[in-house]
Amino acid sequence: MTEHRKLPKGPHNLSRDEVAGTQRARLIDAVLENTGKRGYVATTVGHITATAGVSRTSFYEQFSGKQDAFLAAYREITTEFITQGVAVGAEAATPLDAVAVCCDFLVDYVHRRPTAVRAALLEIYALGDAGLEAREKTLRAGEAVFDRTAEWLRATDPALPSPPPFTARTVVAATIELITQAIWIGTPDAYDQAREAVRYTWLLGLFGHRSVDP
Question: Which end of the chain has less neighbouring CB within 10 Å, N or C?
Answer without folding.
Answer: C
